[in-house]
Amino acid sequence: MATPVSVRYARVEDAAEMARVNVRSWRETYRGLMADHVLDDPGLPAARERFWTAMLSDERYLANSVAVAERDGEVIGIAMAGPSRSSESQWGTQLYVLYVVAAEHGTGAGAGLLDAVIGPRDSAALWVADPNPRAQAFYRKHGFVADGTVNVEDGVREIRMVRSERQTAPRAP
Questions:
Q1: Which residues, listed in sequence order, are joined to residue 99 by a DSSP beta bridge?
Q2: pLDDT tens readout for residues 16-61
Q3: 133 preceded by cis ω (within 30°)?
């Protein structure tokens, strides 16, 4: 029986492992969508480690919520949400990152990460690669719907998915 996945807030000392998961997930998910020269760049892991170090240590990013999922002490997933960068946004929170290594898809790691960085009933927005049916289905399961907005960045087509505040029935005492 596999040990359970645990989710916790990320620390600066996690940056190298977060970069490893980030690069591995990009290569597993975006091959064919993102340019090979980007995915295969030998400097990519170091660049992502610098990115995560900054996200976890620079005061400019203190409002972000960053989490990791682990199994047996190994980081298997990463997530980051924070204030929307768009001034016309109707959503206070944007999911910027949620990656789980392919071998851990379906284990609950993604759901745990999502709930760690965005409250389960909070309104939020995110951009997801299109096509990426697995990720889009995951986000739909968690209340997000495509709003028709499309963006192309670095040759990758993305769609915006949004979630309004979710109403839940009161819990029984």
A1: 78
A2: 999 999 999 999 999 988 889 999 999 999 999 999 999 999 999 9
A3: no
